[in-house]
Design a protein that fits this description.
Largest interface: A-B, 22 and 22 residues
CATH superfamily of chain B: P-loop containing nucleotide triphosphate hydrolases
Largest sheet of chain B: 6 strands, mixed
Strand content of chain A: over 45%
Helix content of chain A: 10-25%
Oligomer: heterodimer
Number of domains of chain B: 1
Number of strands of chain A: 21
Radius of gyration of chain B: 18 Å
Strand order of the largest sheet of chain B: 6-7-8-3-9-10
Distance between the termini of chain B: 32 Å
Order of helices and strands of chain A: HEEEEEEEEEEEEEEEEEEEEEHH
Largest sheet of chain A: 9 strands, mixed
Number of helices of chain B: 8
Radius of gyration of chain A: 20 Å
CATH topology of chain B: Rossmann fold
Shape of chain A: globular
Number of domains of chain A: 1
Distance between the termini of chain A: 34 Å
Order of helices and strands of chain B: EEEHEEHEHHHHEHEEEH
Shape of chain B: globular
Structural class of chain A: mainly beta
Structural class of chain B: alpha/beta
Strand content of chain B: 15-25%
């Protein structure tokens, strides 16, 4: 099947795909897999009930990437997918997910992506997920990602989850289980504008001794948008955990940030910090004193903040 | 040349009363010279600098750059016309790297120049260029990067607001050397250094002493340094209650 220019533009925005990648991939367009291929070390196939994918990365695989982007261009489509990713022992791999919606209609286009990820002992995973919406009419673009990740003994994962722009409504749920000496870093960057709403709920159970988890959240809320950020760290062993939430508030937007720490072991060291505020006037003045206009200064600050 | 003509500046105090911060400042900053602006804290030194940059608005008076009035120009417009300001306490930016900010300061600068200026201020480019200009840097490092930005930008008028504040003694000497070599006898540029530092003040071409919102002395170091240094030291000491940061001796 040939992808349209619109499809390719969305793929480029969410997954940096300018030409078809050579390795393992699955491109889901309007609820159907339109391109699927495995590589010698990464198998991509349907799950048992046909509701999504099973991606298996062989143990010991080094420096390979699998792309599993989703594109919705059919107005009013309600798409739901269940994907499972298994990163084999001592593998080192990258998963590039993400979803782009183009909706020019007055209907609601919605994608719910449920990803279960198992990072086996000693493996290392980088997971990138970008969300993006566009369209000229009043139709809603809704994206609800659910991520359930298990970090086995001595494994590590970095999840970078970004909402670029144009998503009217999102409810993001992330649940992680970190085993002994496992390491998880979650970086979430969200931009909401006009009347958009974003809700992110992250819950990390650090279950094994020597486990570590870090959540870095950067949020920018503009217009009359609203963001709710909840992050809970549950330390159940001798472990280290940190939650950091920084948010820039503009116009009439609202942000609510609720970090939660729950220590169930005397050796658990859990910390959090949160800051919400407008762009500092001194930052604007500094950049303007370098010759940027006020709008250029705002754009530069936001671009850096959400990078 | 930059000319300040009868600049007054007022602010409201907590009770809503008008307080005059600058009371008729008249100065001409000529090209090829390095000026030291000194005096006790609260005297109006930084206010003059910020009025020049457009950060503070004067309540009356006029400012001319190269003979053209810039009194009502914005900060951006003044920056584009060739006024630069190195902040006393530069802000930090989450997510912007040192490379990003130096590239904004001087978009036409190539990597060779950018790296050269970072080395000049005592920072190894390999270690610093990709670092976030955020909380991970010390005050002294931020200050050096601020200096590098202004030196790299090389505007017609460069204002250094207390370059010595928060910087170690060894670096102060180096930064002073950089300012003097870049601006002394340079027919295209002027440097204005707001300072309390006794190493910096006497080696500048002219000294301007500001106190209580007025210029109380203005001359070459040979003319006035021996007259003012004890007086400045005494006032600064009294005001800062012995804080050695402001010790000019």
């Amino acid at each position: 099947m040939t992808l349209s220019k619109l499809d390719l533009n969305l793929l480029d925005t969410i997954a940096d795909i300018k030409e078809m990648p050579k390795g393992a991939l699955n491109i889901r367009l309007n609820g159907t897999a339109v391109m699927r291929q495995s590589s010698p070390n990464i198998s991509v196939g349907p799950n048992a009930d046909g509701t999504g994918l099973v991606v298996e990365i062989k143990p010991g695989t080094r420096n390979e990437t699998v792309h599993v982007p989703v594109v919705l261009t059919q107005p009013g489509l309600q798409d739901k997918v269940y994907n499972t990713f298994i990163v084999g022992e001592n593998a080192d791999a990258t998963i590039i997910a993400g979803c782009g919606i183009h909706n020019d209609s007055h209907a609601i286009s919605r994608h719910d992506g449920i990803h279960e990820i198992i990072v086996k002992a000693g493996a290392k995973l980088k997971y990138l997920e970008k969300h993006y919406g566009e369209g000229s009419a009043a139709g809603q673009r809704v994206l609800n990602p659910t991520t359930i990740i298990t970090i086995e003994e001595g494994a590590s994962a970095e999840l970078e989850m970004v909402q670029i722009k144009g998503v009217n409504d999102t409810v993001r749920s992330t649940v992680a289980h970190v085993h002994a000496r496992g390491n998880l870093k979650i970086v979430e960057r969200l931009l909401t504008q006009s009347g958009q709403k974003a809700e992110s709920d992250i819950k990390i159970y650090i279950e094994g001794s020597g486990g570590a988890a870090q959540v870095l959240s950067r949020a920018v809320a503009q217009g009359e948008s609203f963001q709710l950020f909840r992050a809970a760290l549950i330390g159940q062993a001798a472990c280290v955990g940190h939650v950091e939430c920084d948010a820039i508030l503009m116009d009439k937007a609202r942000i609510r940030s609720i970090p939660e720490l729950q220590a169930e072991d005397a050796e658990a060291v859990l910390t959090h910090e949160a800051a919400i505020g407008k762009i500092a006037g001194e930052q604007l003045i500094k950049l303007m004193s370098l010759g940027l206009s006020e709008q250029e200064a705002v754009d530069t600050i936001l671009e850096g903040f959400l990078r | 040349m930059l000319k300040l003509e009868d600049i007054h500046m007022q602010v409201d105090n907590d009770s809503g009363e008008k307080i005059e911060i600058l009371k008729g400042i008249n100065i001409k900053f000529e090209k090829g010279k390095v000026y030291a602006v000194t005096g006790p804290n609260g005297g109006g030194k930084s206010s003059i600098a910020k009025v020049i940059m457009g950060i503070y608005k004067q309540s009356s008076g006029h400012i001319y750059l190269e003979g053209k009035e810039i009194t009502n120009l914005t900060i951006t417009e003044r920056a584009r016309k060739g006024i630069g300001y190195a902040f006393q306490q530069p802000p930090r930016f989450k997510g912007l790297t040192i490379q990003d900010v130096l590239a904004i300061a001087c978009p036409q600068a190539d990597q060779l120049r950018i790296r050269g200026y970072l080395r000049d201020v005592g920072l190894c480019p390999e270690d610093y260029l990709d670092r976030d200009l955020g909380a991970g840097l010390s005050g002294g490092e931020i200050k050096r990067i601020e200096m590098a930005q202004l030196l790299l930008r090389n505007p017609v008028i460069s204002i250094f607001d207390e370059p010595e504040a928060g910087v170690d003694l060894w670096t102060i000497q180096k930064l002073l050397g950089l300012i003097l070599s870049a601006y002394k006898n340079n027919p295209h540029n002027t440097a204005v250094v707001i300072t309390h530092n006794e190493k910096i003040i006497p080696v500048c071409d002219e000294i301007i002493v500001v106190e209580g919102g007025v210029i109380i002395e203005h001359g070459t170091p040979a003319e006035i340094w021996h007259l003012i240094k004890d007086d400045i030291e005494c006032k600064v000491r009294n005001q800062c209650q012995g804080d050695v940061i402001y010790d000019v001796k």
